[in-house]
């Protein structure tokens, strides 16, 4: 039977998109405490189908698929620009396709403004009206208001009209940055993207015996199974090694590994891979924040997903991507060159400590690829920053592999600028084979 928490989540999920939600309303509708309702609403927000907006409240929004993550909802725009909703609240769940800056004549502005757009403009009431009628939302900059007739029109057309105190340039930069951050998130594979859900997962129950394990083993050809209680909470893991030499009527809970290692659905696949290799685990249970089993991942699925992600086109660029693109091999030598760009510097105009660390990790990764095909996970690292490195300096990075085994590597790295040693690093790495 579903718990109260699960019933509330199901109730929220069934609400129409755009519906306003409150703790008191949920508590009254389902006869639960306000504390229970609040926790469920927060989980729904974490799962991405509820959004809370200051001065508006909590509303049901459409859950985004991974392929549409780069699209922002108007509700998210309100939070990004610290805005105030003047009208059209029922349209906050809708997504914007692109934003248009209204710094032109009215006719020209309307040629670029289409349904699903966000027009960023000042206190130009006629522009507000025409944009709404074209099916676009409006973001008024400079803290300006609009007339009541426009607010009523926004309510009627269910398209938001929002006011923010920021100027047009700042707002455009903030929204662009948010879209860019979403693109980077889209690239990061999470456990939820590859897990096998519980509906397709065979599990053993507390109270089962080794005979039940044998039956599942014959049916699935698998030898590892999670053990759950009547509420699907994870209790343990059992493998073929645990049952060797025991009678068929032995209780599973007597032989299972209690409090097994598990992961969450929002964990990155790379972190899960690291955990599985480090702990020697072939199968990892995936649980939610209440320890309820929601699926499993296997080591094979994880490594396959990592290989596939490396073949995908890049759409958002992190500082690691910038470093990887800047670093070039010096012909005829086992060394690399990299120019210090403005993105790599701190407020003093010298290379930041974090960027320097990323540089030596990238160099170690490339050096070890000559010995092993796979990815590197740093276990231990000592970095010595000897001299500041100025903007536009050309660095020479010289990795020296001291030791490499089947799963581990040790690399020493010297970094030079104009022939002078400016930094050193020593890395102990774990290697994830492809």
Give an account of the 3D structure.
It is a single chain. The chain has 434 residues and is of the alpha+beta class. It folds into four domains: 4-60, Orthogonal Bundle (Arc Repressor Mutant, subunit A), CATH 1.10.10.10; 66-185, Udp-n-acetylmuramoylalanyl-d-glutamate--2,6- Diaminopimelate Ligase, Chain: A, domain 1; 192-308, CBS-domain; 319-433, Hotdog Thioesterase (Thiol Ester Dehydrase, Chain A). It has 16 helices and 22 strands. The longest helix is centred in the middle third of the chain and has 20 residues, at 168-187. The protein is flat and about 80 Å long. The two termini are 42 Å apart. Residues 311-315 have low confidence and may be disordered.
Question: What can be said about this structure in brief?
Answer:
By secondary structure, the protein is of the alpha+beta class. Helix content is 36%, strand content 25%. The protein has four domains: 4-60, Winged helix-like DNA-binding domain superfamily/Winged helix DNA-binding domain (Arc Repressor Mutant, subunit A); 66-185, Udp-n-acetylmuramoylalanyl-d-glutamate--2,6- Diaminopimelate Ligase, Chain: A, domain 1 (3-Layer(aba) Sandwich); 192-308, Roll (CBS-domain), CATH 3.10.580.10; 319-433, Hotdog Thioesterase (Thiol Ester Dehydrase, Chain A).
| Whole-angstrom Rg | 27 Å
Enumerate how many helices there are, as a single number.
Answer: 16
Count all strands and give the number: 22
**Which second-level CATH architecture of the largest domain applies?**
3-Layer(aba) Sandwich
Which strand order does the major sheet show?
17-18-20-21-22-19
Average pLDDT for all residues: 84
- The name of the CATH superfamily of the largest domain reads HprK N-terminal domain-like
Sheet/helix structural class:
alpha+beta
**CA-to-CA gap between the ends?**
42 Å
Helix proportion range = 25-40%
Q: What is the count of structural domains?
A: 4
Low-pLDDT sequence parts: 311-315
């Amino acid at each position: 039977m579903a718990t109260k928490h699960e019933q509330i989540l199901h109730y929220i999920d069934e609400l129409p998109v755009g519906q306003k939600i409150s703790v008191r309303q949920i508590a009254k509708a389902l006869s639960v405490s306000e504390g229970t309702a609040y926790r469920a609403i927060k989980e729904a927000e974490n799962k991405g189908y509820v959004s809370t907006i200051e001065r508006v409240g909590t509303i049901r929004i459409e859950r985004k698929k991974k392929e549409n993550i780069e699209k922002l909802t108007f509700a998210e725009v309100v939070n990004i620009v610290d805005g105030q909703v003047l009208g059209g609240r029922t349209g906050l769940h809708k997504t914007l396709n692109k934003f248009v800056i209204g710094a032109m004549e009215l006719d020209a502005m309307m040629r670029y403004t289409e349904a699903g757009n966000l027009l960023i403009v000042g206190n130009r009431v006629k522009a507000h009206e025409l944009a709404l009628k074209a099916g676009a939302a409006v973001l008024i900059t400079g803290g300006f208001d609009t007339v009541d007739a426009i607010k009523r029109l926004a309510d009627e057309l269910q398209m938001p009209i929002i006011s923010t105190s920021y100027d047009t340039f700042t707002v455009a930069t903030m929204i662009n940055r948010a879209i860019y951050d979403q693109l980077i998130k889209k690239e990061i594979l999470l456990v939820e993207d590859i897990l096998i859900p519980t509906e397709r997962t065979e599990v053993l129950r507390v109270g089962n015996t080794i005979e039940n394990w044998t039956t599942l083993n014959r049916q699935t050809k698998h030898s590892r199974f999670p053990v759950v209680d009547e509420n699907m909470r994870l209790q343990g893991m059992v493998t073929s090694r645990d049952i060797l030499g025991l009678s068929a009527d032995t209780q599973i809970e007597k032989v299972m590994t209690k409090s097994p290692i598990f992961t969450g659905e929002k964990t990155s696949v790379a972190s899960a891979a690291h955990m599985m290799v480090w702990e020697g685990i072939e199968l990892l249970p995936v649980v939610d924040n209440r320890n309820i089993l929601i699926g499993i991942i296997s080591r094979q699925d994880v490594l396959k997903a990592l290989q596939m992600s490396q073949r995908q086109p890049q759409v958002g660029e992190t500082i690691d991507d910038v470093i990887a693109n800047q670093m070039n091999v010096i012909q005829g030598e086992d060394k690399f060159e990299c120019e210090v760009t403005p993105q790599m510097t701190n407020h003093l105009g010298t290379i930041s400590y974090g960027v320097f660390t990323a540089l030596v990790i990238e160099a170690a990764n490339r050096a070890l690829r000559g010995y092993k095909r796979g990815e590197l996970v740093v276990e231990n690292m000592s970095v010595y920053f000897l001299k500041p490195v100025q903007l536009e300096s050309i660095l020479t990075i010289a990795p020296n592999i001291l030791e490499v085994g089947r799963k581990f590597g040790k690399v020493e790295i010297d970094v030079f600028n104009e022939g002078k040693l400016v930094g050193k690093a020593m890395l102990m790495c774990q290697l994830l084979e492809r």
